[in-house]
## 1
Amino acid sequence: FTPLKLALYAGILLGFVMLESPLVMLANMADPFVLGMPFLFFWNLLWWSVITLLFLVGYWCNWGSRS
Amino acid sequence: MTASILIIAAFMIIPMIVGLVSAKQSVATSEDFFVQGRGMGSVAVFFTVAATWWSAFAFLGSNATFYTNGPVYLTALAWNLLFGLMYYWVGKRVWFLGKRFNYLTPSDLLGDFYNSEALRIVVAAIALVFTIPYLQIQLTGGAYLIEVASGGVIKFWLAALLFYFVIIVYVWVGGIRAIAWTDVIYGALLFFGMMYAGYYISSQVGGPGALFAQLQASSPAHLTLPGPNGSMGYPMWFSLFLITAVGAFMGPQIWLRMYSVKSGRLFNLMPFLLGVAAFAYVGSILSGYTGVLLEPGVANPDQILPIMLMKYAPFVLASLILAAGASAAMSTANSQIHAVSTIVTMDIYQRYIDRNASQARIVSVGRWSLVLFSLIAYVMALTVPGVLVTIGIAALAGTAQLIVPTVGAITWRRAHPMAAIWGLLAGVACVLLMTFVPAFRAPLGYHAGVWGLLLNSAVFVVLSLCLQRHDRQVVERFAEARDDYDAEYHPETLDDGRAPLTEVTPATSAR
């Protein structure tokens, strides 16, 4: 792992942990509504956008590889 | 009504024309028919992967699940991201090995790396047996949508027949090239349809904000896990995430879309593109939840979106959106029929019946296989009932088992053929047992596919550590290929200072 690759994969892993580990149950509530949507939906869209953005960064920096 | 029939006719005829035109570039070789000569460009790859992966399961099943079970389908955002990540990380390595050793099917790579004829047969059998039910639900969903969009003028049996006739015509002539270009149309139509359906239907209750507020007042259980029925909690949330992404990714139709790619660079971008595409599920959230408010108590939840469109949208708009739904089904079905035909032709006919078959003969067998398996799926659609998502997940749980030996083949030189065979058999047996024997169903709430993957992985790792491979030549050939991959794409992982390669060169054929 180069430092960039490490940061990239760590960020993606954090996103998946927030979306798919039992931690997601901490966000399993309708209140408070955020941006007009229940909190669980906001939580999912938030981390979906974080990972998608990291995928774009991955493309830009060749997934942290030196090539 | 006339306008709706015209929309359906256009939906059938335009892709057929596109497929036939693109087929003019085809040459009658197996590599062109099955993987477009490994020269598929970026636009075609994105649309054919996305449209193949998004099926009737996504278009109708997502609305149905939000409608009946609350937010569990929201995990689709994450499973799309996982699919994209696997397409980059696993897919790029599979593409590299496929290009070097001339692979066309999953059995080619796994049979070659593990140097096992028995494994080759097991992999082909799993790919065939679990792909056909998934193919059946595309036909069921697509034909139902065409029947509704035509106002009942085109009956289900006729819609299903038309559905397959159109597919067979252009796939027969153009192979995967024709599929990829028709998928550009289908893909654009399906993403538009999902988003616009959600926007339009939710406007009937005042838009997304008002929809959520009304839902919280009238049915708050729809907004949190485990949903109104209490059955869709965290275990199913995680199960759907894992099984849907891995099962679809390991389908033979996606393998062909790894082998077909022209440039390794495209794999770097696909996770982002597939991640962005997942936003279309917001349309499904809005459609499914509006159904809870406007049309509670629909007996077959797969029909909630068509019912609302026919009731609340102008007939022409409803027909257009339903045609978009049929696109989701058609773009998956065409790829699956083609993939099944590839397996039958290359893994069975060419390997065990006629090893010296000419290229023309192989393409001919591939074409007739299309007709045969279309017929099987057609009969199943008319005779086997079931809910789209239930059948879909069971089928995906089977193909998902292939991920274990695949990851072993691209990363681990100790991976042993007996470990791969027994791991797969244990995983599939576990899936079948937990799917068909009620006493064993979903221990701790997790789907059979998750338990199958756990057992499969455990058997694979333990046996690989206990057994020694003696076919050093094969192991070294793959180790060298993996080193070349790293030299090309990840030079920081090498310690010998080799310069990056300039291209992937075909080497010893696996065939």
Note: Chain B has a mean pLDDT of 88.
## 2
Amino acid sequence: MAFEPILLRNAGNPAVHEVSGYRKAGGYEALSKALAMEPEEIIDAVKASGLRGRGGAGFPAGLKWSFIPKGSEKAKYLVCNADESEPGTFKDRILIETDPHQLIEGCAICCYAVGASTCYVYIRGEYVAPALTLERAIADAYEHGLLGEDVLGSGFALDMRVHRGAGAYICGEETGMLESLEGRRGQPRIKPPFPAIVGAFAAPTVINNVETLCNVPHIIGRGAEWFKSLGTDERNTGPKVYCISGHVERPGVYEYPIGVTLDDLIAAAGGMYRGRALKAYIPGGASAAILSDEQSGLPMDFDSLAQAGSMLGSAAVVVMDETTCLVRATLRLAKFFAHESCGQCTPCREGTNWSEMILARLEDGRGSESDIDLLQRITTNMSGTALCALADACVGPVRSLVTNFRPEVMQHVEQGCCPLPRQSIFEPGAVS
Amino acid sequence: MSESARHGDGLPREAKRAIDELRPHYPTTEALLLPALHIAQRHWGGWLPDEAISAVARELDLAESKVYGVVTFYDLFHQHPVGRHRIRVCTNLSCTLRGGEEILHAVRRHLKVDENEVTADGRCSFVHFECLGACEQAPMMMIGDRYHGDLTPRRAVEILEGLD
């Protein structure tokens, strides 16, 4: 599939790490254009583009911006979510490493539109090199008057800081992130109030994902109509950076109009690993329900995947071939959620741990058929009963395992062991 | 503990300076806690002994109990000594599908210590880790601040052998 990349258009051009190189590639023209517009016009353009959040929830970005109270003299904030911790996701790291000024420009336009004078980029603590890349780009942007007291002579002031996390998945949840930014344990807050009213430091706050903000300069530069011309339909618009990993020949990021199929992505990624057959896939990160090979022709957009009982999430596509044991794969994800549950809400703290324990005994061949029903019941009790979406995130893969792949789970029970024993993926010479 | 860490009330002068530079950029002192802990941990050789936690609490005028609460919440803050090279092997799904657990075994076999232990020479310690956001390089590991991808067990051991 041929598609001229938009968000990744500067891949392979390291000159864009500096303001001069980024400008040569057309960068910061959208910011100049935005500063000549009324803030309200920018919000309208983003609304009209149909841009939906690329972090996982798919909330309309323009609508989110419009919730920020207008005319108030109170400080307002933009917090850019670069916590990227959803297993299978690496697009935000690559967007920052490839083109840091694209993100800075998107943040600056957002801040001008909502009247924020401070932007924190909350980046996961493990991303040390990307954080440095971004800090250098921010310093360069200050030197060129693109940030600071008087952005491009417009009178608009903006301070931008990179704020490092310290290793906690839950800080990717927007209110967990705010708690962490304020110097506390990253335990999500009760909503309402929503961050647009009471966010960072009790002030109105927009929280947007890296990729969401990277789209903004292109919407301002090329217009909402152009943006809407890409994608499946009116509700699923624009370019999308898909992360594909697991059993494909060339894992990586692939940018297409939103709504390509898994088959398209596997073809782009060089086909299935060692020519093996597809068994199942996760379309949107660890929190998404696992889909089977028969569902590989679905458009990978927000609504099509939701209708299929899964989600686009962060578009982290994990491909699993015929050698994969789905009980073991789901166990690995449940273990992750049990480790990352912040412990605040009982259904999540208990439910993620019990999911892990029950899956472990099923995988070992010590489980019974009633365990499968127990898993089903636990997921029902975890659904929608906690403060944030982490419990539901664990429910995604676990419930899909017991509903979509029950025969494979039953094989574990009947045979008293895993029917797909572990085998080494490496050639003998690569092992020792 | 690094030499620079041994003076004043525990927090080295450079660390204090680094924290002071951040102050104007945050509306509350409490918000400096994560950056301050990162700075302190660097000065204390990769972990946070009790004296480091007390020093940060005093510097930011926060209760020690509050600082302990934060330190224990986050995976990147350590309350026990770590090796000079801190190794994190990703074993989440995308890496596991590409042999991540074998990388973990190879690292364990080579270092002859268990997770969270430090080799007798103080050089290395390792842990298995959740997704590090580099699944395109699976299987991968992180040593110090650097990512190493497209590993095989043999390649992982070669990298460990090449560490100073």
Note: The longest strand of chain B covers residues 85-90.
